Amino acid sequence: xxxxxxxxxAPVALIWNHKLLTIGGIKLSLGxxxxxxxxxxxxxxxxxxxxxxxxxxxxxxxxxxxxxxxTYQTFAFYGCLAGFVTLSLGIAGIPLTxxxxxxxxxxxxxxxxxxxxxxxxxxxxxxxxxxxxxxxxVVELESISGSVLAIGTRSTQVKNLEGKIFVVPNSFxxxxxxxxxxxxxxxxxxxxxxxxxxxxxxxxxQDICMSILNQSPEVLQDPRPVVVFDDFGDSxxxxxxxxxxxxxxxSSLAEVRSALRFQIDERFKEAKIExxxxxxxxxxxxxxxxxxxxxxx
Length: 297
Prior knowledge:
The protein has helices spanning about 1-15, 30-60, 65-90, 100, 105-115, 115-130, 170-175, 200-215, 255-270, and strands at about 20-25, 25-30, 140, 145-150, 155-160, 165-170, 180, 185-195, 225-230, 235-245. By secondary structure, it is an alpha+beta fold. The longest helix is centred in the N-terminal third of the chain and has 30 residues, at about 30-60.
């Protein structure tokens, strides 16, 4: 029985110990590579589990800020990953000195083929450390507006009002202009414009608009909202309603502005105040009378 087992295992051991290549005097076998890949697979999963445990036991009890918790958990994950990778290579019998042989080639590869990856990785570290944006912030990019869901070492996830999630490279936040609505304070100012017809009672318009702002639960009363007589427009008297909202409470500024416009339309109709629209008067200057004929259809 033992002899049969040895006969069966002999070719397996031969394949397992087959030398694939020799680097720097170190012979790497097929078995070493299989063990290394297996260990690396489990290293990623173990690192995630360990970082979650560290976050639950060591980070959350002492750090209240959500964005700081995410930053520390990210660093804990990569620290654990580095430790497990080193341990995995040691168990597989692959010394770290093997990678010194690839140092020059790796540097050339990074310089020519991985510039964007390295750039985004470094940008991600800067975002996590300096925190110009944090998880939960409302940001506005060139064509994207939404809240930050997660900040990784390569990219950041932004969810817009339609529920779409955009994956934005981290370097974008450092190289482009980004508006962070809630950088230090979630309270922001916004406003809407409304134009009324010439001849309207402007004091009445101001009173109605102030009443709407004071009665809206989404509009903060400190700082105080104001109604400004903004301009004499081409076709209307332009008023601007300026008010403050807390982004941590309201669902979106667009919905708040829309609700106020509905109320303005209803209240103006009740008060017989006309919301102006563009109008043009045409004056004909001719040297002789213009003939007019009425044709029956």
